[in-house]
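We modelled the chain as a single entity of 140 amino acids. Its sequence is:
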Amino acid sequence: MKNTISLVAALMMVSGSVAAQSFDDAFNAQRAMYGKGHSFTFEGQTYTTDHPEEVAAAVEANADNATKLLAAAKDQHAAVVALDFDWTLTKKLLKASAKALAAGDFRKSMDISAQAQYHARMGMVQYHQSQTEWVMAVPE
């Protein structure tokens, strides 16, 4: 009986400490369950499960918007290249986007630019994560 009470008390303490959820965890859980375009509430505010790049690419597909989105993706890629955390896929996406833009397929160019921008942003996230968690990679 004494062991059971100790176990219940320990479980209650553990469950109380892991109850906090970060915004990223909430966003990813909602995105996994409902896909893009879903609204959810986190800490009293309403958000959607759209990535910023998806929102930027959702505008009208024309030459001006496609050019601006490609330029933004190239700028973000240049920033992550400067940190030496670029992904090889991003460069290929930028080339494919430029090719689609030159061919006049503005929607395709914008969608690919959004993907490239997303991958560049994830490279930045990976860089910042590595700066805080590098200690875990060092053997003791």
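As a brief sanity check on the tokenised model: Residues 21-50 form one domain. The first strand starts at residue 39 and ends at 42.
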